Amino acid sequence: MFSNSSKYALKAVLYLAVNASESNKIMAKNISEPINVPQAYISKLLQDLSRHDIVSSVRGPNGGFYLNEQNLKTPLITIVNVIDGENRLNSCLLSIQNCNNDKPCPLHHFAASYRTHLLENLENNTINDMVKGIKAKTSFLPL
Amino acid sequence: MFSNSSKYALKAVLYLAVNASESNKIMAKNISEPINVPQAYISKLLQDLSRHDIVSSVRGPNGGFYLNEQNLKTPLITIVNVIDGENRLNSCLLSIQNCNNDKPCPLHHFAASYRTHLLENLENNTINDMVKGIKAKTSFLPL
DNA sequence: CCCAAAAAATGACATTTGTCATATTTCGGA
DNA sequence: TCCGAAATATGACAAATGTCATTTTTTGGG
């Protein structure tokens, strides 16, 4: 579904969204442990995300990562697209070129409705929407 | 979602199910072209499937691959499990250990219903069910 | 009983993905 | 203005996946 990298990126971003702020930046090495991802690896991912304006970062002493107001409005799909590349979620279950509703492959209907449903959710929900759920305790963010 | 290997295996099995029979076996090299998969690669996959009694094979002259009555009754999930290993489809979108309906991760509800839905379909539908759809022209099997 | 056809087995190689280690740059504070 | 803290950059390495080539075994037919 998603690559490991995307999963890690999502976890890191969510962790930052909940725990960091401009006045309380978090260093890569302090994100690593709670989300259970090697430090150097999460650094590399955060650099990618930073370059794409999905997270904010400040170098030097008292530096670290956090999300500003704008960052929080990022739709979840953007994170996946940056890390995994576009339309990783777009292809048919069997990767058949011209599989569509008119000329479906045998497994098409097993996945089609859901896939669009999932995509809609990833497009319409922002990081901030997820944070609300976590703060309202309707969803959880363990390691 | 599935690995390439699983996709290829599914395509090969469906191709055999539609086009081969005990009296009309098909050689690996003749499956390769219509489903657009390298010959040696599809051979390896078919050997795997043959060892697990998902396809039938006969060596020597006039040999080849086909599906017998029993093979046709195989649920689709079995093919995926043999090639990709068990429960590749079981984990949560973020691969969080104890993510479930009671303690869902933030993305849980985006995927949960679909995943169970897809799994049910793969478990309850056999190769033969797919062949029926293809013959009834409600689904299609291009390359 | 040998020969050729075909599956089966084995292993080499390439690519992608994931992981780690080591520089390099930037910045604030003493 | 220099030092150390931290992000950033780069590249090496490992593992999984995908691809290809070669050899071995089995089998039917002449």
From TrEMBL, chains A, B:
SUPFAM superfamilies: Winged helix' DNA-binding domain (SSF46785). It holds the Pfam family Rrf2. PROSITE patterns: HTH_RRF2_2 (PS51197). InterPro entries: Tscrpt_reg_Rrf2, WH-like_DNA-bd_sf, WH_DNA-bd_sf. NCBIfam families: rrf2_super. This is Rrf2 family transcriptional regulator. It comes from Maribacter arenosus. The lineage of its organism: Bacteria, Pseudomonadati, Bacteroidota, Flavobacteriia, Flavobacteriales.
